[in-house]
């Protein structure tokens, strides 16, 4: 929330992998491409034929799972300043629903992908995110560890997540 690098500060990259692996294990969705940034996640997923394949529900459940764990980790490292910021960022509506911290934005940006060219455009965008603008998280985008870039560019499987090649999905 507010672009605070919560995944980095709380060492919570593993939470996104755990959630994406859960989606695969439960036949809800498969990961076609991803980048986990210090403060946000880019995903390209394929929803599977399943009663729970409602994108809004999938994303909200994932955010809820990760938010609880991120807060737990921030408490464990005694990150009181960040916890206070997250507590003070809640809206009146958030508070009325019993929300204790504002970890993620309520909304997300989703675009359906129906063509190879649009997929490639989105994949290139997310894969280059770690080396663009203010980030400079590595010198070569294929070396960013929390990304599917090495899978697509070098054919190297990701150590924490099975990626489905988009060419098999379209």
Topology record:
Blueprint: H1 6-9, H2 13-25, E1 29-36, E2 41-47, H3 55-76, H4 80-88, H5 92-96, H6 116-128, H7 149-154, H8 166-169
Antiparallel strand pairs: 1-2
Helix pairs in contact: 2-3
GO biological process, one term: DNA transposition
InterPro entries: RAYT_transposase (IPR052715), Transposase_17_sf (IPR036515)
Protein name: Transposase
Q: Total strand count, please?
A: 2
Mean pLDDT: 93
Major sheet description: 2 strands, antiparallel
| CATH secondary-structure class | Alpha Beta
CATH topology: Alpha-Beta Plaits
CATH architect. name: 2-Layer Sandwich
Provide the low-confidence segments as ranges. Answer: none
Q: Figure out the total of helices.
A: 8
**Quaternary organisation of the protein chains:** single chain
Proportion of residues in helical segments: 40-55%
Structural class: mainly alpha
- Order of neighbouring strands in the sheet with most strands: 1-2
What is the overall shape? globular
The percent range for strand residues is 5-15%
Overall radius of gyration = 17 Å
Distance between the termini: 33 Å
Order of helices and strands: HHEEHHHHHH
Our count of domains comes out at 1
GO molecular function: sequence-specific DNA binding; transposase activity
Organism: Hufsiella arboris
InterPro entries: RAYT_transposase, Transposase_17_sf
Protein name: Transposase
Q: Key features?
A:
about 170 residues, mainly alpha, Alpha-Beta Plaits, two-stranded antiparallel ribbon, globular
């Amino acid at each position: 929330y507010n672009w605070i690098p919560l995944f980095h500060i709380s060492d919570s990259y593993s939470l996104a992998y755990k959630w994406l692996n859960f989606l695969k294990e439960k036949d809800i969705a498969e990961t076609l491409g991803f980048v986990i940034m210090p403060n946000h996640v880019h995903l390209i997923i394929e929803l599977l034929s399943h009663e729970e394949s409602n994108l809004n529900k999938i994303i909200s459940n994932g955010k809820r799972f990760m938010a609880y764990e991120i807060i737990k980790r921030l408490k464990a490292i005694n990150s009181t300043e960040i916890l206070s910021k997250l507590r003070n960022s809640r809206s009146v509506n958030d508070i009325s629903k019993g929300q204790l911290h504002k970890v993620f934005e309520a909304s997300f940006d989703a675009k359906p992908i129906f063509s190879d060219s649009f997929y490639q455009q989105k994949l290139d965008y997310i894969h280059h995110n770690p080396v663009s603008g203010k980030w400079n998280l590595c010198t070569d985008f294929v070396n960013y560890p929390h990304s599917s870039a090495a899978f697509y560019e070098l054919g190297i499987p990701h150590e924490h997540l099975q990626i489905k090649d988009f060419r098999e999905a379209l």
